[in-house]
Every structure is written in C-alpha cells, then in structure tokens.
Write a structure and sequence with these properties.
Blueprint lengths: L3 H8 L6 H6 L4 E5 L9 E6 L2 E7 L5 E7 L16 E2 L5 E7 L2 E4 L11 E2 H4 L5 E8 L3 H8 L5 H4 L27 H7 L4 E6 L3 E9 L4 E10 L3 E5 L4 E11 L2 E10 L6 H9 L21 H6 L9 H10 L17 H18 L17 E2 L4 E5 L3 H14 L8
Parallel strand pairs: 8-16
Antiparallel strand pairs: 1-7, 2-3, 3-4, 4-5, 4-6, 6-7, 9-15, 10-11, 11-12, 12-13, 12-17, 13-14, 14-15
Organism: Neorhizobium alkalisoli
GO molecular function, one term: dioxygenase activity
InterPro entries: LigXa_C
C-alpha cells in the first residue's frame, strides 16, 4: 500500500501536477485520423485536464489550441463547431499524424524524437488505429495492461473457439506454433512466473507458464514509458496501446494494431469494434449503467465475467470497478505485481528528475530515441531450459518473413 499523498502524486495529471508534468514531456495521442473530416476541420479534444481543439493553423499544419469549454460539457462531448471558441493568446501545441493517430506535445522546449517502434515503421496497409473511453484514472488503466497474470482470470474463456474465427481478437489464436489454443494455456496455467527488466524505453515483462513435458509458454509484453504498452495480439499482430488522461477521472485508450504478415483488414477490425462503441465519443456500449451486459448463464458456461467475448469490456469492468481513482492506500501487492511495482518506481524517479531539473534522466527524451526499434512482443512455447533464446528466435523468424522492414 502507499500513502494518499503518493497516490495523488502519481495519478493527478493537470497542469503543474507531478505526473502531469512528466506526461507532458512526451508525445501523447490526441485524436484519431478518422475523427478529422472536411477541408477545414475543428475537432474538440479534452486532454490532461485541458480543453483544446484540433485545427489547421494559417500555414495549413495541424495544431491543438486552447478553447473555452461550454458549461455543460462532458469529458468526451463533441459540441457543435459553431460553439467552439478559442482562447485569445491561449496555449497552442504542435501536432504530428502517425499511422492513423494525431499525436501532440504539450511540454516545454523541443519535442522528443519518436522511437522507431514497429507500429510506426510498418506501412499504412499493415496498421489500424482505434480508441475507447474508460471512466477511470489513466494509471489503473495502464496497470491492468502490465499485469501478465490477470489474463488467466479476467479473460478466462471456458470454451475454445476455432482459431479460423479469431482474426482481430486477442487471446483467440493458437499458442506459439502448437495446436493448443491460447485460451487453454491461460486457463490451465494461471499463475506465471514473472520477470521484469528495465529497458531504454521502459520495461520488458516476461510471463513464464511452465507446462507439462518440460515445456514453457513464454509471453513477452512491454511497458513503454510513460503510459503505453506493447503486447502480442496473435502470431500475426501486436498491439501498441496508449492510456491517455482526459482528466483525473477519465481516460482514452488509443491502440495501433500492427500486422507482420498480411495487410490489415481495416474494415473488418473497425466494424468489430464499432459493435462495442458509439460515435462520436467512442464510449463503450457496455458500461456501468447497464452492468456491462452481465449474463449469469454466460458466466456459468462461457466466460469468467459473463460480459461477452470482447476482452476490452473485461478490462473496462475491472478498472472502472476500482472507482474513478483507485485507492492504493488499501492495496496489498504481491509477487505477481512485480511489473506494477517497477513501473511506479520508474514514474516516481521521472517525477523527481523533472522537479530537480534533471530531465536528461528521463527515458526517450533525446535524439537517441529514434534509434529504439521493436520492441519484442510475442507468444511462444519452448523447451523450459532454452526459453529465452527460443522466444527471441521466434520473433526473429517473424521479422525475417515480414514483407516490410521489421529487422532489428
């Protein structure tokens, strides 16, 4: 458990807050390219406690400019264009569009370079971007993503579907190059050993599920500082997901799906997700007000939560159930929370670096960030004694067969 003072320090993200000052020193997703319509668009954006609008400046470049918020504006409400008023002399932030997402830099000085992650290296044909709104603080949204053990419980499927129907769905593929469905691996081996390693971008998190016949399932995921993760979706795809504060009690997840093999079926993936979300605010149709469509018969026969097959709904229920801002003064972390502990230490170290004007200690803040590639993120079943090299080789093989340059 931690003190209330520390919990406030690592969760609050408004201007001049400790965590907010760290997050403003990195590029953050602000809007999807799909949200920008017309030759002269104005897209309201609420980001890190600030009311902004995405528009073109006199040079034709996109920027985020400060706007006046209407009195009845909800965190993700999109008012009519005519109701948008800019603040004279207000803040203006630079914007860059990458792979279906508009990113902005809201910090002081020069913006950092973008790392050369796979999601940014892949051609447009091999990526797809989407987002979703959660009614909770950004940190608890991130922390569920860096907990490798939660998938065996929260995403437990009691039946294993045909992998031929798994496209665009996480945990519905076969594990590694075996005939065992990933859902079966998670169900039968629910308590992995977890190894956490600091990297030049954040954390490499390895979950080891030791199986029969001296085999081990190796799942490598990553925390990308300050608020993103990169995880395997299937043998073909990875997910790079940012957890972006709207304000202290609301956040968006922005995801870029990246395919190493075939071009992404964008229409299919968009339609899959629009069945679960409404426009224009990308709020989930299953939510606290309708009890996430909980079905006790489904819970008995099909899923752990009884809330459908979309794992985003499972995660949403879990993180929103902790309250708008999780009370960490009452938590008791254990051995399985190793990545969460290491991340919080990393965040506190970054807060201290900003407060003491030692920003050279922050990850990915200099020109060398552009040289960071990858990261490795995959599932593999290997011999227990050779799991580390076998996992790396599985990733190398996927990259070697990739039609775009995914070499590392």
């Amino acid at each position: 458990m931690i003190s209330q003072k520390l919990n406030d320090q690592i969760t609050r993200i408004g201007p001049a807050t400790p965590a907010g000052e760290v997050m403003r020193r990195y590029w953050q997703p602000a809007a999807l390219s799909d949200e920008v319509v017309g030759a002269d668009p104005m897209v309201p954006v609420n980001l890190m406690g600030e009311r902004l609008v995405l528009l073109r400046d006199p040079t034709g470049s996109f920027v985020l400019a400060e706007r006046v918020a209407t009195a009845d504006e909800a965190p993700a409400f999109h008012p009519d264009r005519d109701a948008i008023r800019l603040v004279e002399g207000g803040a203006v932030y630079p914007v860059i569009e990458k792979k279906g997402v508009f990113f902005t830099y809201m910090g002081p000085g020069e913006a950092p370079e973008f790392p050369n992650f796979d999601c940014f290296r892949a051609p447009d044909s091999h990526v797809f971007a989407f987002k979703g709104l959660w009614e909770c603080n950004w940190l608890q949204a991130l922390e569920v993503g860096i907990d490798p053990a939660h998938a065996s419980f929260l995403h437990r499927f009691l039946q294993d579907e045909d992998p031929a129907d798994s496209y665009g769905k996480q945990f519905r593929d076969k594990a590694g190059h075996t005939d065992m469905p990933m859902t079966q691996v998670l169900r039968e081996y629910p308590r992995p050993d977890i190894e956490v390693e600091e990297t030049d971008f954040g954390l490499k998190i390895t979950a080891l599920r030791h199986m029969a016949n001296d085999l081990t399932h190796v799942r490598v995921t990553n925390q990308i500082f300050p608020g993103a993760i990169c995880i395997p979706m299937s043998r073909e795809m990875t997910i790079t997901q940012w957890h972006v504060p709207v304000d202290d009690q609301t956040c968006y997840w922005y995801t870029i799906f990246t395919s190493f093999a075939k071009p992404v079926d964008k229409e299919l993936m968009r339609n899959q997700r629009l069945k679960e979300h409404r426009l224009p605010d990308y709020a989930p149709l299953k939510n606290r007000e309708n009890n996430y469509h909980y079905n006790p018969e489904e819970q008995e026969k099909l899923t752990y939560t009884g809330m459908g097959l979309d794992i985003n709904v499972h995660d949403q229920w879990a993180v929103e159930g902790l309250g708008p801002i999780q009370d960490r003064t009452r938590e008791h972390l254990g051995r399985g929370d190793a990545a969460i502990v290491r991340y919080r230490l990393m965040l506190r170290k970054a807060i201290k670096a900003v407060e003491t004007s030692r920003e050279d200690g922050l990850l990915m803040r200099d020109k060398s960030a552009a040289a960071i590639i990858g990261p490795l993120s995959n599932d593999a079943i290997t011999s227990t004694g050779n799991w580390l090299e076998a996992s790396r080789q599985a990733d190398m093989q996927r990259r070697a067969e990739c039609p775009w340059d995914a070499s590392v």
